[in-house]
Amino acid sequence: MTRESLLSIRGLSASVEGKPILREVDLDVARGEVHVLMGPNGAGKTTLGHIAMGDPAYEVTDGSIVFDGEDITELSCDKRSHAGLFLSFQAPVEIPGVPLSSFLRATIEGRAGMDMKNKEFRRRIKQLADELNMDASYLDRELGVGFSGGEKKKVEMLQLLLLQPKLAILDETDSGLDVDALSVVSKGMDSYRRNCEGTLLIITHNTRILEHLDVDRVHVMVRGRIAAEGDSSLIDDIDRNGFERFGHRADEAE
Ligand SMILES: Nc1ncnc2c1ncn2[C@@H]1O[C@H](COP(=O)(O)OP(=O)(O)O)[C@@H](O)[C@H]1O
Ligand SMILES: [Mg+2]
Fold first, then answer.
1. Residue 84 to residue 198: CA distance in whole angstroms
2. How many C-alpha atoms does 78 have within 13 Å on its Cβ side?
3. Fewer CB in 10 Å around end: N or C, the chain?
4. How many helices (H) and strands (E) does the chain have?
5. pLDDT tens for residues 9-24?
6. Which residue's alpha carbon is at the smallest distance from atom 3 of ligand 1?
7. Are 121 and 105 in contact (CB under 8 A)?
8. What does residue 196 show for φ and ψ, rounded to 5 degrees?
9. CA dist 125 to 177, 185, 189, 209, 253, Å?
């Protein structure tokens, strides 16, 4: 049985500040699946995530992105978000005086099916914080002020579970997630899968985060191209042998 397509990227080429980064990328994610995008530093993985989300800093020079049956190549980031796309770079900026709970309240503002009374909203986010083993006092903290990398990740997971997007692209950025943050991310992904049969595209180097997930497909990006695709056995292969056999040179400038 072929599963219904959710994200379909075709022949996507893109540049940033006039410099070509992505080259003729094809990538398909079906509804309900878990995909992993791997590749050496500088390959263009984060760029792909930002372009899928409509970040105006990147210029699409060729190709198309179809999401949930709609061509979104030209849509604004906001419209894509309302269509059900989520990218985990939305780490909150620092807004002194604004508690995290108000920020989360604003993220669901005007979304279909998300009308909630304040009390109900409080109950909902408390329940989510609980699920993630986060202290509820966290919700009253000022947005972003003094948040560590790990704490920002937790906020993203709260956002993910609150919004329940159709597709979540999680860019784990490889920078220092401690054990605690890793566990929150794992819990968040689990809960997203269980509660809303969420579809995931995980960009990561950290294969530990994938241990509890059934990965359907792995995509390997090298120098802006998809260099290989396969099932989850590719993850172990890359863990052992690196990216050389996909055309990456270890001495390559990163
Ligand atoms: N906003 C930007 N401005 C300039 N160059 C960028 C920008 N974003 C990405 N790049 C360049 O694009 C290439 C791919 O980067 P990136 O997508 O972050 O790779 P990865 O996530 O695979 O490590 C790198 O050479 C990087 O320097
Ligand atoms: Mg990156």
1. 11
2. 5
3. N
4. 7, 12
5. 999 999 999 999 999 9
6. 16
7. yes
8. -135, 25
9. 23, 16, 16, 24, 44
Within 6 A (CB) of ligand 1 lie 16-17, 21, 39, 41-47, 57
The beta strands (E) that lie in the chain are given as 5-16, 19-30, 34-38, 58-67, 70-71, 85-87, 95-99, 142-143, 167-171, 199-203, 217-222, 225-230
Does the predicted TM-score (pTM) go above 0.85?
yes
Task: Read off the pLDDT of residues 88-114 as tens digits, 9 standing for 90 and up.
Answer: 865 557 788 889 899 899 888 888 888
Q: What is d(CA 147, CA 141) in angstroms, rounded to the nearest whole number?
A: 9
The closest residue, in CA terms, to atom 4 on ligand 1 is 16
Ligand nearest to the Cα of 253, by number: 1
For the record, the structure tokens of 121 come out as 């909203």
Tokens of 102: 């108000």
Contacts of 254 (CB under 8 A, 6+ apart): 40, 41, 42
Instruction: State whether the Cα torsion 181-187-189-195 is positive or negative.
Output: negative
Task: For residue 44, give the DSSP letter.
Answer: S
Tokens 């500040």, residue located: 17
Query: Residue 136: pLDDT above 80?
Result: yes
Rounded to whole angstroms, how far apart are CA atoms 107 and 37? 27
- The 10s digit of each residue's pLDDT in 188-242 is 999 999 988 899 999 987 777 788 789 999 999 999 999 999 999 999 999 899 9
Within 8 A by CB and 6+ apart from 12, the residues are: 22, 24, 25, 26, 27, 48, 51, 60, 62, 63, 64, 65
Take atom 25 of ligand 1 and give the residue whose Cα is closest: 42
Please give the number of the atom of ligand 1 that sits closest to the Cα of 57: 1
Q: How many Å is the Cα radius of gyration of the chain?
A: 18
